């Protein structure tokens, strides 16, 4: 199986440090080797926009939880400028300092959802929440059900939340147990050895099918529609990651 990359098991405070480390690339600062993001972020943003259809409308309220500092938040900022959306970016101060300022952008330095005053003020007003490649950090750092419940309380009628790029260890195992995944592993690792896949084993601090399905059920139990969606197969981790889209009817 492809070896875990050196950025696994990092948390909010590590990202603060990365943000200030000028020896790291913009992709390394958000926890990715360059090869996972360089040249792919246009396609990633297209996939996000296809799912968050409210972004195509005008004058909406948009929130990005954990925007990081690569080109993805810059694309979102440009789209919000064009479509006259109000945009709130929530991340560490150090990460937010790496992103542009503009009158339509509100920067909230916080480890979400630990920003109760802002949450209370925004309840029921948000049309789009993007949280891309962040859930696996939230899952370890804070209560992920609280993260979900607080986020849903923000959504306006018709509001959409994309919890994107979720590394689901169950999906990863299914892939590496398949013929396609075995060949992928052999090519990627330049080996004749098949990947080592262990089913029926709890993987601590990893998101699995149980976590993904529990988020779907908990959102639905609160009156929201919730779906597990695949990523465009052109995306670099589409074979082991997936997205959750939640919509307030
Ligand atoms: C892997 S990066 C993803 C960045 C961006 N969303 C992307 O996909 O390019 C994770 C980002 O989430 C931020 N983050 C992690 N936990 C967070 C939390 N609880 N609240 C706000 N930001 C968080 C980190 O500081 C980092 O900028």
Which compounds are bound in this model? S-adenosylmethionine
| CATH homologous superfamily assignment of one domain | Vaccinia Virus protein VP39
| CATH fold assignment of one domain | Rossmann fold
Task: Please mark out the parts with pLDDT under 50 across 5 or more consecutive residues, or reply none.
Answer: 1-7
| Nearest-integer average pLDDT | 95
Q: What distance separates the N and C termini?
A: 41 Å
Helix/strand-derived class? alpha/beta
- CA-based gyration radius: 18 Å
Largest sheet: 7 strands, mixed
SSE string: HHHEHEHEHEHHEHHHEE
Number-wise, the strands total 7
Q: Name the strands of the widest sheet in spatial order.
A: 3-2-1-4-5-7-6
- How large a portion of the residues is in β-strands, by DSSP E? 15-25%
Summarize the amount of helix as a percent range. Answer: 25-40%
Gist?
This protein is an alpha/beta fold and 249 residues long. It contains 11 helices and 7 strands. Residues 1-7 have low confidence and may be disordered.
Note down, in words, how this protein is organized.
The protein is of the alpha/beta class. The chain has a domain at 40-171 and 209-247: Vaccinia Virus protein VP39 (Rossmann fold). The chain is built from eleven helices and seven strands. A seven-stranded mixed sheet has the order 3-2-1-4-5-7-6, sandwiched between helices. α5 (93-96) links the parallel β2 (86-91) and β3. It is globular. S-adenosylmethionine binds next to α1, β2 and α7. The site of S-adenosylmethionine has 23 residues, from α1, β2 and α7.
